[in-house]
Amino acid sequence: MDIVRTGKGAMPSFAKTLSATQISAVAAYVTTRLAVMNLAGGNLAEGGVLYRLNCAPCHRPAIRGGALAFSRKNAPALTHVNAATIVGAVRSGPGEMPAFPVSVLGDQDLASIVKYVIFMRKPPDPGGLPLDYYGPVAEGLVAVGVALALALVAVWIEEKGRG
Amino acid sequence: MNADTERVETRGGPSRSHYSGVVLVLAAFTIAIASGIAFLYAYWTNAGTWLLGITMGVGAGGLGAGLVIWAHRLMRHDEASSPRELLQSTDEERQALVEDFLTGEQRVERRRLLGWISAGVLLTLVAGIASAVRSLGKPPMPVLKAPAWKRGDRVVTPDGKPVSAAALAIGSAITVYPEGRVGSLSGQTMLIRVKEDLLHLPKGRTGWAPMGNLAYSRICTHAGCPVALYEVRRHLLLCPCHQSTFAVLQGAVPTSGPAARALPQLPLYLDPDGNLRAGGDFTEHPGPGFWSIIA
Question: In whole angstroms, what is the distance from residue A163 CA to residue A158 CA?
């Protein structure tokens, strides 16, 4: 409700254009919209599929955000956004982000996506060193680097042993 | 160092350490062959990645150890040199050469055994790696060559629902498939809705975007990544792999990055129910150019 009055980022303030009752009506609508969405009913696996299809190209599969074209603005990381922000962004499409109306992405699907995003804030991490969740290619690159360093150490030890 | 003393050593025949070296190399190579065969068995019986890793590791390790022992124990490490004098050798030297050669002949026999067994090691390890190539799956070529859409195919969302012309808000973008082939590789398409009066499509494509609904292949023409990153305000499709950008309003021509071809466009029309249908196949084969060259 406050955000409608004050505005935030690209969103203008509506304090002058809307009356106090209108602002509370907007807030009430948004709240009902959120309440209608049963966020607890989402399915994590389905959310993962939908997220990778619709969101991962920009926000990366591990929700850590990614670069856009010709811009210093990136698709933001979703590690600190709450469910209401995700719902609002998906439905309205802020900035360069396309909107996903309910006709093509149902409320249940969106609830699943929210569930996946919240799960991915801290996914299971058996390796202990996630490397910003860039995935197996980055992990392999680090492993090759470590192996090369060890090989250089071995060569150095042998050279030293000879001398 | 005198050349004569060198030759005396050589003529003395293989030493004990030479024999033990041969035995060690044979042992290492036998281990490598055994693990190579174990790898093949583990691969074809789906015994699990742990066994695959261990057997391939021991196999490569055996080959490496064998080669190291071979180099250290069986090969000569001293540098033989003699002052350059007459080109013609003396008779004694020639006689010595013949004897050297005869001594060496026995060595050649033994080396031949090592040669066979190292060929065996390479054969089993290469067979293991070659059979693992099967796990890469079918090549994508035949799939991409077949027509992805045909005239009259209904456009459906990933959960199989038809898409009406007004389903997308202006500034929306979703992935769609031909009806009945949801999830197909070549049929994956980006459906984008833009303001109709902004459109500036190439000639001959009028009416391909009913109510501003545009459809382009989702496979980048550069390296085949999914081009699903749509920037609404700049009307750009961006490929996240190598940052190729495509101008959506101008028929998805590449505007920067490594992609050289435009994304193939899918003609759309509205059926009497108001749902989007394909008016034919893509304008070109979807997928990166090099696939069509290899074929």
Answer: 9
